[in-house]
Amino acid sequence: MAIPVAILAATAGVVILVFKAIYSVFFSPLARIPGPKMYALTSWRLAYDDWVGERTRKMYKLHMKYGTAVRVGPNEVSFSSLAALRTIYGAGSGFERTSFYRMFEVYGRKNMFTFGPGRDHAARKKMVANSYAKSSMLKGDIATLIEDKARQYVDFIEASDNRTSEIFASLHYFSIDSITQFLYGKSGATACLTGSKVHRDLISDIIDKARRRLSWFSVHMPDFINAVYAQTGLLGAIAERYLYPMQKPTTYTGIRDYAMRACETFADDAANKSIAEIDLEPSVIAKLWKHHTTQKKDGLDNADIAAECADHLLAGIDTTSDTLMFAIWLLSRPENRKYQEKIIADVKSIGTESLNEHGIPRAEACDKLPYVAAVIKETLRLFPPLPGSEPRLSHATTTIDGYVVPANATVSISPLVLQRNPDVFKDPLTFNPDRWLSEDEDTAEMNRWYWAFSSGGRMCIGLHLAMAEMTTLLASVYRKYNTVPTDGFDKISPGVTRA
Ligand code: HEM
């Protein structure tokens, strides 16, 4: 009796799938790494955690159960140890960012965040590194910029009804006004704090809940996303109606358009200036312009420069404003009033000689405040604004934390998992800035596990800018006010960080 070809093909398909599953779970080189079998079987298990917004919390639970190495996919391992941190993220480790980062490409161009190989990344980083040095933040033009924005923030609160502010929005105004001026100079700065409605509207696409759905598809089904958004005509209309995870304008479209216009305006101005004049400007775009095609053969074109700046713009908005929001929310909670009193005492210790002409504490003085630093560190420990795994791969087989990991497997560490480790941080889920104040061995150990800004060659380049913005804003606010949640807000979390 002849067996229909379709049945034969289906049977063969099932046999191959079963064989692959058995191989993946029991015989793959990653098989000896502990973890739930379902995760070893299929990457869709982890994708499901992502879909329901539980991925990072799930990683934490898995590490609590299985230890410092957990297999979380057929070809993916999550680590949570200092040994793994050094091997994967240590300077010169040879591990690269994975294709996950492609979704951060802007206008189809690579940028510092998305470059894979170290050489391309290092060349680009060299062009802007000076702008981000700590010495550039605490004195001169950039310090003045940050102090000005802190003053505008205080003025904004003063002008609000009952000095009540919805801090998600107002702190986003502060961070976007700061980063746009830092990147593009005064002519390219937004003016959210001083009332521009058009600029304030830029943050509305950040709030859209569909943004998370779009990110999910971009990570787990990138080809689908590319195909769907590329359709035009009738197919485009059908895709838009039934298949778009997020309607246009999609995430950050407004901010990306703004970034492109700021770059074009800069390019028009630059055409009438000498490179020596441009070099005197403190903005990041001015530093990049020295590498423009008009200055160098094989230099960067307008789109490269626009993309680089747009990426820094996106990196510099939510990170600082979410951290500030969590800090103020935490300090405002009734059980944390004692910490609020301590931060107020710390910022009131600033002498009048360290205030600027508007009574705003100077960035340099804010940098030296121990309790402000402890509050920020503790906020970033408990609620890092980028809490999730930072995926990397190596083209060579590597031993990580005692486990042999084959070439091209995805490995990662999550700051949230590291920073809530109960063996290192006593009562890890409790906000307690005091834990950072002593100088004993326990604090030294906590510092080794503190990883909110990542580490090695790909650590956050905006660290010093972010710290200067956050210390100056907190000092300016708590010198003048104490903060309490408005009715109802003492019972809920701001919930931006999906832990
Ligand atoms: C509280 C504030 C901030 C935190 C916690 C933070 C955290 C981080 C982390 C964890 C990474 C590495 C991500 C990964 O590898 O997956 C990163 C990279 C980066 N951050 Fe930040 N960031 C902050 C503020 C900023 C600001 C204000 C800027 C300003 C431009 C910025 C620009 C960047 C850039 C350009 C990279 C890529 C660096 C590279 O690949 O060399 N960040 N940041």
From TrEMBL:
Q: Does the keyword Heme apply?
A: yes
Tell me the InterPro entries matching this sequence: Cyt_P450, Cyt_P450_CS, Cyt_P450_E_grp-IV, Cyt_P450_sf, Cytochrome_P450_monoxygenase
A matching Pfam family? p450
Question: SUPFAM superfamilies, from UniProt?
Answer: Cytochrome P450
Task: Quote the CDD domains the UniProt record gives.
Answer: CYP_fungal (cd11059)
UniProtKB keywords = Heme, Iron, Metal-binding, Monooxygenase, Oxidoreductase
Q: Which cofactor does it need?
A: heme
State the family named in the UniProt similarity comment for this chain: Belongs to the cytochrome P450 family.
- Protein name stated in the entry: Benzoate 4-monooxygenase cytochrome P450
Is this entry keyworded Metal-binding? Answer: yes
